[in-house]
Batch of 2 targets.
Target 1
Amino acid sequence: MRILTGNDLVTGDVTWWTGSGWSRHVEDAADVGDQGEAIAQAEEGARRVNAPYVIDAAETADGPRPAHIKDRIRALGPTVRPDLTLKPADPNAGSWVI
Amino acid sequence: MYKYDEYDHSIVAARVEEFRDQVNRRLAGQITEDQFKPLRLMNGLYLQLHAYMLRVAVPYGTLDSRQMHMLAHIARKYDRGYGHFTTRQNIQYNWIKLADAPDILADLATVEMHAIQTSGNCIRNISSDQYAGAAADELTDPRPWAELLRQWSSFHPEFSYLPRKFKIAVIAADEDRAAMRLHDIGLQVVERGGQHGVAVYVGGGMGRTPMVAPLIKDFVPFEDFLSYMEACLRVYNRYGRRDNIYKARIKILVHEIGADKYRDEVEAEFAEVKKLDLDPPRAEFDRIAAYFAPPPYETGLSDAIDRGDPDFAVWLDQNVAAHKAPGYAIVNISLKPVGGIPGDASADQIDVMADLARDYSFDELRVTHAQNIVLPHVRKADLPAIWQKLADAGLAEANLDLISDIIACPGLDYCSLANARSIPVAQKIAQRFSDLGRQRELGELKLKISGCINACGHHHAGHIGILGVDRKGTENYQLLLGGSGAEDVSLGTITGPGFSEDGIVDAVEKATDVYLRERAEGERFLDTYRRVGMAPFKEAIYG
Amino acid sequence: MGDPLRFRADEPHDEPAVTLDAFLGQSNATAVRIESGEDARALLPHLDRIALVEVSFPKFRDGRGYSSARILREAGYAGELRAQGDVLVDQIPLMRRCGFDSFAPEAPVDEAVLAAALARYDHHYQRAADPAVPVWKLRHG
């Protein structure tokens, strides 16, 4: 599947296109098919996202997982600071990242 | 320390408002990201993996306690409670909101700090020797020269859209603690006929094409200093390559046309610009230099230190350096605890270091290019008390210049340019060698890790260097041996095929085993490598 | 494209600018355009007959034109010096300091933003091609 990601213009937070808006959680990412570039352009123009780009991802039982390690690290947070990730309370939250 | 006058305050205040206006226009959609990017970069604001990152300038690495406390305040108020000290003696924050950036700059301005030109294709923060003003071996304090450069380069109208970034370092000792010849321009203050001037090296750098800067001019007196810099930069601005970002640094220009041709071009340009009255009078040098006058050292102090506590004695031997004033010493605070993140400090730790500077070091701190902190002027008699307070704050790691005192870039944990993570490799190596006795047996061993070819972790200049690469979507690490960023500057050589994360830790250990086996009396790792060459290391690592 | 933004009192020069090659090759042209990679010093023998130099900025990141402008002003050129092309409002204050006194940006410039930008800095650290007195001179007279 292809999913669309970027950073929130104001906060810089990593965000994922859900099909109707943006979410902090990669699990909410929607397959954009071949529409990714068009959505990116419209959303960037509306300043709802900064520097969006389309990536490959795998569909899993837990939701989409980016194909490249860089985007998996973006999805959760720095591997060296679990306390600063999106799921600081879950010691196994990063098991799929590396 | 330098203090702002009304002019400095006015310029920095104007910059805060300028950037506030630029951010507002970006948020309102009046400028695109493509247009905004160079503007925000010239204020040190990047978009990184997880958020915006703000790099705050620490000019020539010098801070007072009020400034250091402000860095802690920013970490708490606008970030997530910590900061990362960098190889260019700056600090960066990893979790900044765009809308907060102007307020942060306004807070910084209250303590005479800023983020001016900490990124972008312009002249960056001037770096220097972290022992400036304290080192026993220096000719003079290099920082007045660095401050002259700071002012000259700030908002330089001609050199704000250079082909690529431009880094300048200034030292004034033969021992090079600032990797001077690995800068676009490296300057060493030298003496001739009783006058101080600078020797000018141009075209060094790391990155994907590492180069050691050749000497371009052996002596430029103060009276010509800024004119000569203007000429060096103008030749680069006009003739530096703009067709390929990877060939745009001045080192490529100097390499392609040759140092002699570059020197001729600079001399011709200098003859023109020297007519323009660009050089400030000697009185301006003296005004600036007065701020860097030695602090009021006490006299008659004893050089005796109570070595009773063995842990203190180890720290004393490893982390404390000779000071030029009797009874004083230079303290290095390691930001490299075993298992920690090289260069990171929590807001609480930053406050502790600020208080120690206020109480024991004439209110001064330095940031080092090895990502540590220095208290430059402490009484030897105070060392035990300082050590105790550092230990209480988790800041007394006694590993300066040892294998666990690792320079590492943020790598793929934070950086959008990275290909591989650097920090976990640093952590694993530090853990493998966690026994301090073993580290001390290995002696001075500078290990430097970059997560991509841009070489922010100085891997070319490590006695042992590690370069992270992306091999088909998997992190892979190349090993280099034999680099140095010091006065015996050299570029490391790749040993051979790369390794996995665990494999690189094993390879480092094998390299150190070869050193222990082969070393002659008094040799450091680097000396042994230079004497015996790559072959025995290669055999042990790949054999 | 509308009229250039001018910071000069004289009348606009309406002769079209010719290329550097054309200018050097013949001509009695009084307006010349130099591309960002061309050597502004080639014009120095002819400055007394030039009324307009247009310096091209093909991309705003290409900063060679800043040096071109200073070289012309340092040689005493007093005619119109125009920055043309990808010229952004935030760059105009720096260009003014390098000696440009005329601007033909490809995209329109918000005049209120420009006015604020030009008025923002009361002081400058270094001497350039504008009349601003560098801070070190203010400090020491």
Target 2
Amino acid sequence: MLELKNIRFDADTDGKNVEIIKDISLHIDNNKFVVITGPNGGGKSTLAKIIAGIVKPTSGSILLDGEDITDKSITERAQMGIGFAFQQPVRFKGLTVYDLLRIASGKTLSISDACQYLSEVGLCAKDYIKREVNASLSGGELKRIEIATVLARNVKLAVFDEPEAGIDLWSFRNLTRIFENMRRSELTRTILVISHQERILNIADEIIVLSDGTVSRHGTKDEIMPELIGSGVAQTACPKIEEGSGENG
Amino acid sequence: MAKMDEVQLRLLKEVADLHDVPEGAYNLRANGESVGRNTTANIDIQTKTDVSGIDIRIKDGTKKESVHIPVVLSESGLKETVYNDFYIGEDCDVLIVAGCGIDNCGTQDSEHDGIHRFFIGKNSRIRYVEKHYGSGEGTGKRILDPRTEVYMEEGSTMEMEMVQIKGVDSTNRTTVAELKADAKLLVSERLMTHGEQQAVSAYKVTLDGSGSSADVVSRSVARDNSFQKLDLCVLGNAACTGHTECDSIIMDNGRILAVPALEANCVDAALVHEAAIGKIAGEQLIKLMTLGLTEAEAEEQIINGFLK
């Protein structure tokens, strides 16, 4: 279980102290698919980074399965089973897709294992395994590889920061399927996704709405979703395409 | 073949990936002397009579053969200049592996300057691998100042892999190439300097023939207090294409001076240069740390990948 207690985060912007996260306390149970949503600038990405250890909170504490991890480094948290997929995946000159998956898995990775992780995100290993994770890959490809690195880690808690950001509609529909498969997977892991997308919100067990640095709503999908429809928080990828996509979308 | 000691065998492994006597033609040089040689029906190796070095002659049409000419120095204070000339016939396809390993445990400087000249015949394809490596705890410097000259006939291709990853205190390497029509030169240089090392690498590629092309890619890492100067120059004298790329990572107090130069003397010459120097991006380290690596491990993976 992930527990956040009175998390605050202040940032210094142009010499002014700005409260990005005001006072957030949350319980996220094991094996849940939770989506954090809310207006831009509400502190969602900052909260995701605080959980992964990339950003240190100004105050408050974070517990994973009862253990206080507030002062643990990114590496320690990763080793304890927290995975993090970046909103903007990082590019590497020289490192290949296989290298990243090998590092992620933390062991000698067979080609067939690597193939398994790539096929879960809809990529054919034959085409990608030797590719460098550099600017030659498209936004959608990078996003999927980023997700594959999290899948390769077999984590307890996987955090995805706006997986839909920066990808085209075609890739987005495939991405939704990846999350649906993760949701159905028998693996015991908690999935925490930062997203605005209605299709991803629809997969959630629970939805947390973050606005102005606080939790404004937290409940089951059925409780929260009706309030979000039409509010501008739950966005459709493209109304025109959504209309026509029907059963194949 | 004369027996080589443990240090020499280790150097041989580093520079030529050789555990034993190679297949095909070879000339092994240790501490200034030839300690083993083999020639084949198509590849002849002769000792020069005027200066130190060898002539390697490869017959027309020689394919799928290799020549290894590694040099190892394990004696402190040894300084040598060696002239090796490769005369490659037409329509060949040959692998040439050179390289120099110096182990200096003494107080005197050890230096090997290899002057390699390649005369590549029409439509021949050569893959050339050159690795430089230094080791030893002595205060004597390990110095390598190689000069490589490549003269390419019509339709020939030269792929060069130049690697210097560790242990060479001072290097000043010069590579010049002249290309006739439809000749193609591909260079991949990887360089890492550390400690107080100094490295200068200069290329001058002249594209004389119509349809000739060159792609010179240098990736380098300067750590500690080391310094590198990378000087990549391409001249286009005909309808040709030239591309140079100089991509470097600086760490600690490392310094790099990249001097790109393009000279087009023909309106149909298309020349491109790219250069970038910077430290490892923080987000790259963070990404690998979220995969469970420590910062030092992440750094190592990034550099290994970059220089691969």
